[in-house]
Amino acid sequence: MNPMAISWISFGCVFGGAMVGMFFRRIVPEHHLGTDSKDVIKLAMGLLATMSALVLALLISSAKTSHDTQSGEVTQMAADFIQLDRVLAHYGPETKDARALLYQTVAQGLGQTQTTYHSGILDTRVTTASADVFFEKIQQLEPRSDFQRSLYAQAMQIGAELGRLRSLLLEQTGGSIPMPFLVVLVFWLAMLFASFGLFSPSNATVIGVLLVCAISVAGAIFLVLEMDRPFGGLIQISSAPLHNALAHLGK
Questions:
Q1: Cα 66 from Cα 90, distance rounded (Å)
Q2: What is the residue range of 61's domain?
Q3: By C-alpha distance, which of 242, 17, 199, 237 is closest to 9?
Q4: What are phi and psi of 232, to 5 degrees?
Q5: Three-class SS of residue 201?
Q6: Residue 241: how many CA atoms within 13 Å on its side-chain side?
Q7: DSSP helix/strand/coil, 21
Q8: Which string of DSSP letters, residue by residue, matches the chain?
Q9: Residue 21 C-alpha from the chain's centroid
Q10: Mean pLDDT by 10 residues, the chain (251 residues)
């Protein structure tokens, strides 16, 4: 589901909880809202607040770890592209076509990274076809000396590593945040805001403060979900490493 839709649903649940609390304040018998009752409810809500903070911290940590991991994989891919190009350059002039295909594949992939999240980096049909042709070109090389055989082995090894990183990136595009955790977090926050409304007077100032707090909570959830979409969200992984690699290819 779209992060914006989830954040609006979260906002509705949280702020709705506060309004429900204010509604129940009017119909709950006065003796149910005495000092003893307030103390018990405050302790219960304190427990919910602590658990909510822990779950929110867990979601942030999960999204940040996933974001950093994929960013590192993109940087590693960029370094591997440069290394592979240098190995082919040292191999000899017969790798000219393969190096041109490598440049073409990276350039086409960069055209998609900012627009196609579900495809991921270098996952369009065009770039996949270019990558296949590129590896076929490498496999067709016929080393004639120990030096070329060593470079050929290095090129195959780097190519295999690039394929592994690409597959790993594709497997990670589903997101790292478990939806049950998010549902439980929103439920706890709704109950917490309901307790705020239960003991708050029904005036514009209080409602405005609760509204701002609900928007803040929904905004935090939105940012966490956006961080979990590193190729299509607001907090995207930088494509600068790949652009830098492209500038060095073919030199």
A1: 36
A2: 3-26+35-248
A3: 17
A4: -145, 0
A5: coil
A6: 16
A7: helix
A8: --HHHHHHHHHHHHHHHHHHHHHHHHHS-GGGGSHHHHHHHHHHHHHHHHHHHHHHHHHHHHHHHHHHHHHHHHHHHHHHHHHHHHHHHHH-GGGHHHHHHHHHHHHHHHHHHTT-TTT-TT-SHHHHHHHHHHHHHHHT----SHHHHHHHHHHHHHHHHHHHHHHHHHHTTT-S--HHHHHHHHHHHHHHHHHHHHTS--SHHHHHHHHHHHHHHHHHHHHHHHHT-TTTSSSPPP-HHHHHHHHHTT-
A9: 35
A10: 87 94 85 81 90 90 87 89 92 88 81 46 57 81 90 90 81 75 92 90 91 94 86 78 86 75
Domain count along the chain: 1
Place of tokens 């770039």: 127
